[in-house]
Design goal:
Elements: H1 2-17, H2 19-39, H3 52-60, H4 64-67, E1 78-79, H5 84-93, H6 95-103, H7 113-119, E2 129-131, E3 137-139, E4 142-143, H8 164-180, H9 195-219, H10 230-238, H11 251-270, H12 280-302, H13 314-341, H14 343-348, H15 352-366, H16 385-408
Antiparallel strand pairs: 1-4, 2-3
């Protein structure tokens, strides 16, 4: 027995100490470890330390649907309300179970989700837990009345009454000279060092007078048997005050009263309480009056001597120039309003092109801005500004004459 034991020990030591045997053992161990790593790993990793809440949530996940409120009740458009301190306790009690439900929401099927959104798009649905008289947690719901959508009234744009643009154009030039021009109205000043501006304002006043007279006597009346509009009649009287009147009455105060009367008529026109007619026989007197005024301006621009036979002086030449420029500036604005409000009448007589040419000529005259008004000979090296102004004025007068003839036929 002792010999057998010694022989076995000697064999084991010899086998262990052999390098070939050691290599075989190492290879076998590596193969076994690799097989265990490939086929013996668990399907899910172990939860990390300290994640007891997650383990509890996985554990109660299968029973969660039995505790949670039914999702199919979304058709009732309800909202849950937590009542009392007991509801707070029940809510904290079921928080772990709700966490398990939310964690497994992606894996669990929800057959009523599409139906909920389709049936109640306007309701906000939440669920909570409360306690009944026995202390058990139950779900309570409170109906929510959806807010109605705000009703937006459609915006109705009323068309601008015919004649508004014309009256506004009659007001605007004098309004600028009285209220916006620096130093205001100047023809009635005791000391008048700015005679160029004064003559320009006199030209604007003349256009305003003729426009208001035509509006009161013709355009606002259906015929000669109609009574004059009281506001326009007052405005016509106020604008007839002498431009150089300084006191009792002052010119600018009466002109402002005239503008107020025009604004009253304009407001009545917007409200449908005043009349404005666009017939050609109502417009012809205004255009004929403008044509006569342009003829007077044209004569003053081209004449060499005054009525008494004396030559036109250098200081008189610039007065004619700026008076005509005031006339052309205000007349162009009024004629643009005529094109707007009398468009149907003009188109019916094929007269819009004639009016357009007249307006362009007047605007060209109003845009002249020489540094100094020269009155040299027509063949001189220097300019003759009166003659330069006379050219577009003559064109405008011609087109207005043709326009009157076209509307008269």
């Amino acid at each position: 027995m002792g010999k057998f034991k010694d022989s076995a020990i000697t064999f084991i030591k010899t086998a262990i100490l052999r390098p070939r045997v050691i290599g075989v053992i190492v290879v076998v161990a590596i193969v076994v470890w690799a097989l265990c790593a490939l086929f013996g790993s668990p399907d899910q990793p172990m939860p990390p330390a300290g994640s007891g809440h997650q383990a509890d949530s996985h554990a109660v996940a299968p029973a969660a649907p039995a505790v949670a409120p039914p999702a199919a009740s979304a058709h009732d458009d309800t909202q849950t309300v937590v009542t009392g301190s007991a509801g707070q306790q029940a809510e904290s009690t079921t928080s772990h179970g709700a966490a398990g439900i939310h964690e497994n929401a992606a894996d669990s099927p929800q057959p009523h989700a599409a139906e909920t959104h389709a049936a109640a798009p306007a309701a906000v649905q939440q669920h909570a837990a409360t306690q009944d008289n026995t202390g058990h947690a139950v779900a309570t719901t409170t109906p929510v009345v959806p807010h109605p959508a705000p009703v937006i009234a459609p915006v109705v744009h009323k068309p601008t009454p015919r004649g508004v643009a014309f009256v506004e154009a009659a007001i605007r030039p004098m309004e600028y000279e009285l209220e916006e021009r620096w130093w205001g109205w100047r023809p009635n000043d005791i000391i008048s060092p700015t005679d160029n501006v004064e003559n320009f304002q006199l030209g604007v006043l003349e256009i305003t007078r003729r426009t208001v007279v035509a509006l009161a006597e013709k355009i606002s009346r259906h015929g000669v048997t109609d009574a004059l509009d009281p506001d326009l009649e007052e405005a016509m009287n106020w604008f007839m005050v002498k431009a150089s009147s300084y006191w009792f009455p002052s010119a600018e105060s009466k002109y402002k009263d005239g503008l107020d009367e025009l604004r009253t008529y304009l407001e009545n026109l917007r409200e449908g309480k005043a009349t404005f007619f666009i017939r050609s026989d109502n417009l012809i007197p205004l255009l004929a009056s403008f044509e006569d005024l342009l003829g007077s301006c044209d004569e003053n621009l081209v004449k060499d001597t005054n009525e008494d036979g004396t030559p036109v002086s250098f200081f008189k030449a610039d007065n004619y120039f700026y008076y005509t420029q005031g006339v052309s500036s205000a007349m162009a604005e009024v004629l643009e309003a005529v094109h707007h409000d009398f468009l149907l009448t003009l188109e019916s007589r094929n007269a819009t092109e004639l009016l357009h040419h007249a307006i362009v000529s007047l605007q060209r005259a109003a845009d002249m801005r020489p540094w100094i008004i020269l009155d040299s000979d027509l063949d001189s090296l220097f300019a003759n500004n009166r003659a330069n102004m006379a050219a577009p004025i003559s064109h405008a007068r011609f087109y207005l004459g043709q326009l009157v003839k076209t509307l008269s036929t």
